[in-house]
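Case 318 in the screening queue. Each case pairs one protein sequence with one candidate compound; here the compound is alpha-D-ribofuranose. For every case the pipeline is the same: read the inputs, emit a complex structure as tokens, and attach any notable structural observations.

Predict complex for case 318.
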Amino acid sequence: MNKIKKGGKISNTASNGKNHGKKVIIDTDCGIDDAIAIMMAVRNGLVVRGITTVSGNTEVEQVTVNVLRVLHFLERSDIPVFKGAHKPFVKTSVSSAKIHGSDGLGDVGLPEAPFEAQITSAPIAMYEIAKENPGITLITLGPLTNVAMALNLHPELESLIGRIISMGGALYKGNVTRFAEFNFYFDPEAAQFVFDSKVPLTIVPWDPILQNIILEKDLLKMAKNAGRIAEMIVALEQTPLAFMEEFYGVRASVFPDPVAVAYAIDEKVAKSKIIGNMKMELNNNTMRGASVLTEGERMEIVTEVDPEVFKKIFVQTF
Ligand code: RIB
Ligand code: CA
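Case 318 output:
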């Protein structure tokens, strides 16, 4: 249970989604799409045993506040939150404030939670939760700093985690540089450390995410009269929609982290995937942070997303 501040209350609202039953840990740098992904996980009945936070879209202190706010909004203060890494292993300077707003949640004014995160740090929490739930799925929505630290501190995690589903990397076109996607660019050494581990791994890279663009008019249609969760998702999306309009002239949005969670809910959201391998470019050059396809069969890599399967899960989230 989260430690409650004075006057807070613990509510154990059951998840509203179908009883999916799959046990997961979510590791996040809680920006806007992360928040929507957490809503999707909870509302579609994934059994979220814990949420760990990491710096990425914003600093880990703010990320942790954001996760608590989202859980308070969902009335799921029973889900424990654990703060993690402040910095990547090797300094990388990049900011995503333009997409996620100054507080990381589009400055929509989501109310503060009346409860706090746990004392245990994220890497230790990952180990303790996996020990209690062998075979658990770890869904990563941000840089892999916590995951690499956890695996480094507790190598036995390699046999306790059933699968890591990781939103990250880019096959042909990045979103931070021409070559690199944000999560893996932010801490490429951590990503390589996870690739070098033996944990079964599914990568949801940036490229197929772009096949799942939702126009604002379609989002508004789906959300019309659909209730407070849908309203909040539309409010959260205003900053990314404004970013897309400014840079690409269209009010549309992509949902990278929700696609990774949707894959954990229903693998059919991946229209196609390959068994392959990636290595991270770690040298200090223009390719740094690129995830380069290479020989080997280390991981599953989603190569196509099915927008219809995604939309079904997305609407179920409302
Ligand atoms: O490249 C997309 C990823 O970077 C998403 O996880 C988004 O939240 C940002 O962290
Ligand atoms: Ca994220």
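Case 318 observations:
- Residues 3-17 have pLDDT under 50 and may be disordered.
- The pocket of calcium ion (ligand 2) is lined by residues 28-29, 31, 34, 56-57, 141-142, 257 (CB under 6 Å).
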